[in-house]
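Minutes, project check-in

Agenda point 3 was the complex the collaborators sent over. CS summarized: three entities, 467 residues total, and the question is how they sit relative to each other. Sequences were read into the notes so everyone works from the same version.
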Amino acid sequence: MSAGGEARLWLAQRVTAMFLAVFVAVHLVTIIYAVRGGLAAGDILARTRGSVGIAVFYGGFVVASAIHGGIGLRTIFIEWLRLRPPVAGMAALFAAIGLVALGVRAVFAMVAA
Amino acid sequence: MDAVKSLRVSVWRGGEDGRYQDFDVPRRESQTVLDVVTHIQRHLDPTLAYRFACRVGMCGSCAMTVNGTPRWTCRTHVDKVAKGETLRIGPLANMPVVRDLVADMREFFDKWARAKGQFTPTRTRDDEFVAVDPASPPRREADAGIECIGCGVCYAACDVVKWNREYLGPAALNRAWTLVNDVRDGGQASRLHAVAGDAGCHSCHTMMSCTELCPKELSPTRSIAGLKRATLGVALSSLEEDK
Amino acid sequence: MTRTRNHPAYWAFLVHRVSGLALALFLPVHFLALATAIEGESRLDEFLRWSEQPMVVAGEWILVTLLAAHLAGGLRVLAIEFLPWRDWQKSLAAGAAFVALAAGLVFALSR
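CS then shared the predicted structure for the full assembly.
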């Protein structure tokens, strides 16, 4: 990867970080609120089923997390596992794709199933 | 008569696959680690190899690893760092060992060049001087990092240098930043490309060991943060300058 | 511990990296758990009941704290990289730690 490409990865990670700051803050507050008095599937699903807002919010959350996490994992693969950058990049890409796939499936399960 | 107290000193001997050798050195008041190394070489083992020059904290030649931390040995009082009555001294980390306490600094300086850490002139002796206002923001930024003397302490302390062989390191990037802020310099485009990417500023994880340990109290982290902003153009441009 | 790694900014880096790694490993598990809702409400309820065990509750608390820590550390990095340099940014590490622990505490107390 060229220096410009690597700089773009850095930028993508910082930009997704900014979006995630909002996603995470909202999610943390929501979870803390929802966890009061125990979790029940019925309660949760009653709120999430059919909600376009939930789908859009958590769909975006999943994509941003996958990009952000993927780029972070690439760095760890290079620096701590000593993988060569092209190999590390491929492994990180697989991880990111996996996260998107599982994440979208989870959002689907909560909203549409 | 009081017995002279003794310091047990472990000193690295040999090359990469060397070992620590122990010496007993008399403790003295206001003794520095450089005093200890000098005593060993003069009175106990003349084959010990080490570097020093000014011995008064100006040149940075005497940088070594003292109890795991890279420091200027002439400015390190034994009282401050000795663990009980023991001391461990080795060559600077992240550099090949030449012999004993001497590190091979060629790659350190090669990276300085790779970061385009040299001034690129644009005028001749027949042109007017460039009027640089010392109070202008770019000059203030440059001045904040300009006192680097290339001692290698920051480079030896940096874990990214340890984990990423291509990483140019805090000193080279700090120098590049001072030149990025030099309004007289004509090499900005190639310099910004040189300091971008995994080998450049984008691998800095703001651990700040460089800033913590710099004997001149510089902040390479600050300079590298500046480079991250300055190279946004490199990230966003579609024109690639290939190596 | 040597001075090379024994200072706040280094701890901030380490916490940020380890928490990020832990979250990256946790996320697939989280997604799989939520996806049990596909098999129907009772399957998700079964999982939620399992997750009320003390060890799991403790694990969740650790995860929320890691998430808060990673967010706080991330805000510190964004401030250092995008805002003009200020020396007090060093103490952002301390502020970040505080926020993370506070979030973890709120979560723990809300159970």
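Noted in discussion: Chain C has a mean pLDDT of 81.
Follow-up: revisit at the next meeting once the mutant set is ready.
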